[in-house]
Amino acid sequence: MQTIYILWQRQVKKYLRSPSRIVGTLGQPLFFLLALGYGFGSIFKQAGQGNYLQFLSPGVVAMSVLFTAVFGGIEVIWDKQFGFLKETMVAPVSRINTMIGRTLGGATVASIQGVIVVIISMFFGFRPETHYLLLALLFMFIGALLFTALGTGIASVLDDMQGFPIVMQFIVTPMFFLSGSMFPIEGLPKILGYIVHANPMTYYVDGIRGLLIGGNHFSLGLDFAIVTIIALAFLGIGSYLFSKIKA
Fold this sequence. Notes:
- By secondary structure, the chain is mainly alpha-helical.
- It has one domain.
- The protein has 13 helices and no strands.
- It has helices spanning 2-16, 19-24, 27-39, 41-46, 52-71, 74-82, 84-89, 95-123, 133-156, 163-177, 190-198, 200-213, 220-243.
- The radius of gyration is 18 Å and the shape is globular.
- The two termini are 22 Å apart.
- The model has no long low-confidence stretch (mean pLDDT 84).
């Protein structure tokens, strides 16, 4: 537990001590809220779908968690190149505990980022419901674990710091755009519908949207079950890949 706590604390402290990182990662969510929230708002309303900013904001929150979590994996490659990971690996502690500590830290950072985006979106007119706010925070953290484990697992098999962002961009961009973050998933073409339903990000966005504004497409039980099961699976796979890193 001490190993897990120390590595969790390291991740959180690195984030809190870097104001430029906090501000920089807010650029993309702000762009989506401004450009899409206001740009497509009138079209969405004319189509009888209600307030587009209210619909979009949970998707932007999920996007912020996704990108913050998966790109946190680059720290594994960074630590490989600068020797910190080698020192960690040769220490008399379990590599699984090392992986868990890093993942919990990354998930905590991504969840904090998601909360910040929720607060900022409220200044643009987003009005979340407060009935399930604590449950929304828990769900946000479970999803952050999923994406952090994904990023850490992929980073464990890569050594190229320049190649990691390219690989992750290739993975996370379709996950985000084909998740219903920016558009309702009802009435999609059949093939696109299959892809959206097979995307774990879809259930993450749907769960956050359901807990914050009550506009979920699936049941909350299904969203929780799928995200939790995939998070556990990715944690297992990520732990295995991380344990195979050569010290």
